[in-house]
TrEMBL record:
Record's protein name: Integral membrane protein
UniProt KW keywords: Membrane, Transmembrane, Transmembrane helix
Segments crossing the lipid bilayer: 6-28, 40-59, 79-96, 108-127, 147-167, 225-245
Phylogenetic placement of the source organism: Bacteria, Bacillati, Actinomycetota, Actinomycetes, Kitasatosporales
Coiled-coil blocks: none
Length: 254
């Protein structure tokens, strides 16, 4: 299982690194009023690359040993994922909101992300990670459940917003910019898969509490597969959308 997980997240790291490079390559060609969306897109790809690297079991074990604290890499990966989601939300906000409302909308999403990060840090220190892991295997541990539910609830909310607005943008762009619309559709699909990932893990936690959980091996296989698909779709979607916007006439969005 560790080999498969490493392969999945290693591939995700490569895809997100490539997506970051593509976003950086075309960053200077966009209109200045969407500078925030450009920076958020680059930040999303870069932090997702970090999160993917930290989720590779061999790298995670090395970091945990160096830090002298079990699950340190998992915790840092989750925090990076929160930044990833927040960056995507800010990108979407800059694309879809009128100028007077951008600052307020961005501030709300930054505040939510900051609260989630604060809660995750607090709940990580409350969990006895010396004896437990932050995984579904320890669903009966209250501290682990609180940590996972906080992370997964935020992931579901952010993934839902990203998917809805990405698909709306794709519909608006489908006639004039088909390549960009395709990229946005793929990114929107990634958001949908992220919601499915969060719901599947939350569903397992709830089922475990009431004594009707499905086999742990199934959940352990499902979770990295869904996470990998979500990351891959978003990374590919952002890259295709960026190339698509730059391949055609001067874009209206960043």
């Amino acid at each position: 299982m560790n080999l498969l997980t490493g392969l999945i997240f290693g591939t995700c790291a490569l895809l997100t690194a490539l997506s970051t490079a593509i976003c950086l390559r075309f960053a200077h060609r966009h209109r200045p009023q969407f500078r925030l969306a450009r920076r958020a897109r680059i930040a999303a790809s870069a932090t997702c690359c970090v999160a993917s690297l930290l989720a590779i079991p061999q790298i995670a074990d090395a970091i945990d040993n160096a830090a002298g604290c079990n699950e340190t890499a998992c915790h840092l990966s989750d925090l990076s994922a929160v930044v990833f989601f927040a960056s995507l939300q800010i990108m979407i906000v800059d694309w879809t909101r009128t100028r007077p409302y951008v600052r307020t909308a961005v501030a709300v999403r930054l505040l939510l992300a900051a609260v989630v990060i604060g809660l995750l840090v607090l709940e990580f220190h409350r969990a006895d990670t010396t004896n437990v892991d932050l995984t579904s295997e320890y669903a009966h541990n209250g501290a682990v459940t609180h940590y996972l539910v906080t992370y997964l609830a935020y992931s579901a909310i952010a993934g839902l917003e990203i998917s809805v607005y990405s698909l709306r943008l794709a519909l608006a762009a489908r006639r004039q910019r088909r390549a960009a619309a395709t990229g946005l559709t793929i990114a929107g699909a990634g958001g949908v898969i992220a919601v499915a990932y969060a719901l599947s893990r939350c569903g397992y936690l709830i089922a475990a509490q009431v004594g009707h959980a499905w086999p742990l091996r199934l959940q352990d296989a499902l979770s990295p597969a869904l996470a990998g698909l979500a990351i891959g779709c978003v990374a590919i979607g952002l890259a295709v959308a960026t190339i698509g916007y730059n391949a055609g006439p001067k874009p209206e969005n960043g």
